[in-house]
Please model this.
Amino acid sequence: MKNILIICKDLYPLQHPRAFRATELVNEFHRRGYKLMVVCSMRDEDYQEYRREYPNVEIKNLGDVTSILRYSFFQKNRLLYRIFDKIFYFLFLYPYIKLLFRVRAFLNENKIKYDLLITIAHPFSIHWGTAFARNKRNTFFPRKWIADCGDPFMGNKITKPPFYFAVLEKLFCRKADKIAIPVEVARKSYYEEFHNKIEIIPQGFNFSNIQLDDYVRNSVPTFLYAGVFYKGKRDPRPFLDFLCTLERDFRFVIFTSNDSLLTDYEIKLKGKLIICNSIPRSEILRELSKADFLLNIENETSNQVPSKLIDYSLSKRPILSLKMNCLDYDIFLDFLNGNYANELIIEHIQEYNIERVVDKFFEIVKD
Model:
């Protein structure tokens, strides 16, 4: 298996789990010397930065999926923008639905017979466009197709898409040779008739170039969270409300790309809460290694596992995992006092090594 095609939306320098997934896979396939073609959909400035960082990777950009809501009328009416943005996304997966047509067009026009195609969602419209392109007339469609999924789509209890998207979900599940998901508990979020196609391939991380700081206990108890929040789902506000009642010193550092739920608390906690923008993974690992312990806020659903937990584990700092609506913070107080007896342990960490992950992709499509 020599010719590999990967279709995704984002790559480096974007900082989110699906971009990490694609970038790590591309880097490992390229390191092994396979003939590789990458198709992405990014803003031109991000695409050009990727080209500068990885000049030897053959890549094609389908262009960013911009929304008509970006036009000046909606930009001047922010309330209307937010309302229509949510409505269009919920009803039509807009603007990501555009990738259905762009991916289908690319595969229909392609004249190279690839041995393996890996499509990476989010967004799932990449899988849908691929499914439409797989037909008897397309003799150049790759020999094997693995549809790689992060969070489920129709079975996602957070977003709960409209019923009619089930047609597209079943279409890609039927036409893909294999469906890759990161954790076993997510299997139940897919239609049972396709469970035999599902393989567990976790998020992959490069273990070879991890750089950590030597840990020194902080004079003020310091704990850190890295990742996104979801209002009402992975919501930090109940925990922050509790922190506001504590009459002791601490420092809570958050690295995130969305701080809309945090602004009021930054004022209430008077310097105890430090909010930082997301930074590259190599840098966040060093920051994690400096903290006394790390905080995870558990998903309200059981079919998703945050990839941040792998980085947490690699940083070699204790992990405190709390439910969003936790009413008993005694364990947190133990951590604040340096008692980490109830830390979360991530088992089988080597399964997340990108070398093992790429091996798994090849294993599941052996003839």
